[in-house]
Amino acid sequence: MRPFVSRGGGWCFLLVLIFMVSFGPAVVSAITPAERAFHKGSELLSAGLHQEALQFLRQAAGLEPDNPLYHNGLGLGLARIGKVREAQWEYERTIKLAPNLAPAHYNLGVLQYRLGNYEQAAANFRRALMLRPSYSKAYNGLSAALAGQGKLPEALGSLEQALEFNPDLVPAYYNIGVIHEIQGRYEEAAKYFAEALALNPGYQKASNRLPVTFTDGRVLRPGIRSRKSRLEAIKSRMMAQARAAGGMAQLLNQYERKVGKTPDDTEAQFILGELYREQGEYKKARFAYLKARQLEADFAPAYQGLGAIYQAQGKIKQAISYYRQALKLKPNYADAHLNLGGAYILVGRYEAGVKHSQKAVEINPETTVAYANLGAGYTALNKYAEARQALLAGYQLAPEDYLINSNLAVLSLRGGKFAGAVDYSKKALAAKPNSVDARLNLALALLGSGQSEEAGAELSKVVKAEPGNLVARSQLANIYRKQGKYRRASNQARYVLRRDSKNAPAQAVLAFVYAEQGKRLRTALRLIDRALKAKPKDADFLHVRAWVLHKLGRNKEALKLAEQAAGRLPGDGEIAIHVEIIKKALEPTGEPTQ
How many CA atoms lie less than 13 Å away from 129 in the CB half-sphere? Predict the structure, then answer.
């Protein structure tokens, strides 16, 4: 490429390639061998494995020689290894097969630009824009071709149009900065270089320009975005269209028709994927996101959408992979940081989860879910002060939010603040009445505050809604045990132990029931010993072992454990009564207590 002459030395105009394009309506069908080869080749091309990619791209074009998509992909692969003439032939073949395929004209324009044929490149970019007026990268390419001809004012106008359609196009900000610098408008140039860095802090070309622009030692740091991001613009447009259409279902029908007519519209494919995902139609959503990715391989929202689908299906590792790809393309992508943080927390990588959730908050301080994720991550790391600070910040933004109140309830339970946990759990239930987790938190909070009857009622609701909830059943068993309803208690405990033989609370309940009934005492001792192995300092478990030992006549040992339990739970009436019973049992044997 011909260099521009600017203050600070020669500099090349930057141009970004599109990797993949697609066509055809968004319908789910069986994948063909050619399509499989094309997808594999495209993935390898995106990963920078160009020679390996060519093997699959040639295979796809050979299997379906009349498919323009595959010839376009092969052209991209050939261009990547410098086989320019062969690439040009593949692009021309693509255009012959599909004259209205805008990305093929764009890619041919990129190739002509690289050969220094600026007029021909400009003609190809204009043809792409005639076919797709919102093609932001074609505007960026046209600006480069115009600049190569020395037409800087026209190039600047083309770049501004590119940003109108895609406010996240980093090279456009950079190129505007270059033009301003060439024309001596250094302050303006610096603003655009800083804007590029705000979008992509690792964008070396822009960071290298800022020291060149300022000779007096000043450093300009990226500030708040002055433009709405491309994704924000898409979301705003989607919500406005939904309101106009009468709801998401009606909008989905509109976009299905739109994509059928204009299948190479990246944003339409992405919105269709979002709408399908909202409806829970994950296969169709995945297909739409893949089409958007084929049209623009560096369209980060498509990777974010694919990650969201996998996470909704419980495939967290695959989701993490796609979120990371989205962030590689767009480092300041708030939604991708948000979802990656949440996914890391789900798989127990709490430090990484906190890091990405914090980044999401830095980019968008009004993201309530990010504060909820931060709270969950910090709580799991036992950093309760940080967790509370994050959750209260989210609470200030959305005091009725389900996730914020749920996580505040969990944090309050961890800290033994049961009254607060009750209040937060009730707020969470008000936001999401069918939430089993919020109802379970409420039950545990009520139990901790001594309201066992109310807790039992809530636990019964949890079990009814989710019969396999072992936490609820084991706690309900303990309540029945304390109420003297031993048959109900043992039934619940046995249900739990059949599904989780190492469940310590259920072991303790069954051990107490056996002791209270005066049968199977050796089994009772084995059960409570297993429970204490899991939680050796649990006051309830110490109390149950004391009671089993008392029933076995080992009152000295029993009294020691019972008094330990009473010391840990000084307000527990049942333990206090059992301490007195054990003391009295010792007196007739000539073993008076102090």
Answer: 19
Nearest residue to 55 via CA among 30, 74, 80: 74
Q: How many CB atoms lie within 10 A of CB 74?
A: 28
- Note the pLDDT of residue 433: 93
Burial class (CB in 10 A: 0-12, 13-18, 19+), 221: exposed
Between CA 398 and CA 407 the distance in angstroms is 13
Report the distance separating Cα 123 and Cα 465, nearest Å: 65
Say which DSSP state 588 is in.
G
CA distances in angstroms from 385 to 348, 353, 382, 408, 414, listed in the order given = 20, 17, 9, 12, 12
Tell me what pLDDT residue 240 has. Answer: 65
For residue 224, what is the DSSP state?
S
Q: Is the torsion defined by CA of 76, 82, 83, 88 positive or negative?
A: positive
pLDDT tens per residue across span 260-311: 888 888 888 888 888 888 888 999 999 999 988 888 888 888 999 999 999 8
Contacts for 131 with CB less than 8 Å, ≥ 6 apart: 100, 101, 102, 105
Q: How many CB atoms lie within 10 A of CB 126?
A: 17
For residue 201, report the phi and psi dihedrals to the nearest 5 degrees.
Answer: -60, -20
Residue 495 CB-half CA count within 13 A: 18
Phi-psi region of 227 (alpha: psi -120 to 50; beta: other; left: phi over 0): beta
User: What does the alpha-carbon distance between residue 309 and residue 298 come to, in Å, rounded to a whole number?
Assistant: 19
**Residue for token pair 């089409």:** 291
Contacts for 270-278: CB closer than 8 Å, 24+ residues apart: 270/234, 270/299, 270/301, 270/302, 270/305, 271/234, 271/238, 272/26, 273/302, 273/305, 274/238, 274/305, 275/238, 275/248, 275/251, 276/252, 277/305, 277/308, 277/309, 277/312, 278/248
Contacts of 76 (CB under 8 A, 6+ apart): 17, 18, 19, 20, 45, 57, 87, 107
Q: Which residues pair with 10 in a beta bridge?
A: 5
Task: Identify the CA nearest to 176 among candidates 200, 164, 158, 201.
Answer: 158
Nearest to 546 by CA among 563, 531, 534, 533: 563
- Helix, strand, or coil (residue 9): strand
Tell me the two tokens of residue 279. 């409806």
Instruction: Return the axis-axis angle of helices 402-414 and 436-448, rounded to nearest 10°.
Output: 30
Q: What is the mean pLDDT of each run of 10 residues along the chain (594 residues)?
A: 24 28 32 79 81 90 89 89 89 91 89 89 91 83 88 86 79 86 78 79 75 44 44 61 69 83 84 86 91 85 91 90 90 88 91 92 82 90 90 86 90 89 92 92 91 93 93 92 92 94 94 92 95 92 94 93 91 89 79 48
pLDDT in tens, 23-62: 223 333 345 788 788 878 887 887 788 888 899 999 988 9
Distance of CA 554 to the CA centre of its chain: 56
Contact between 114 and 76 (Cβ < 8 Å): no
Element (H, E) at 569: none
The whole-model pTM stands at 0.59
